[in-house]
Amino acid sequence: MLLPWKNVLENVLFPIRILRRPRSEYIDRAHALIELVGLTGFEDKRPHELSGGMRQRVAICRALIYDPDILLMDEPFSALDAITRDEMNDALLDIWQRYTKTALFVTHSIREAVLLADRVLVMTNRPSTIIEDVTIPFVRPRTNEISETPEFMQICSYLRSLIEQGHGRGRQNPGTRATVRKSRVVQGTGR
Question: Against a cut of 0.90, is the pTM above it?
Answer without folding.
Answer: no
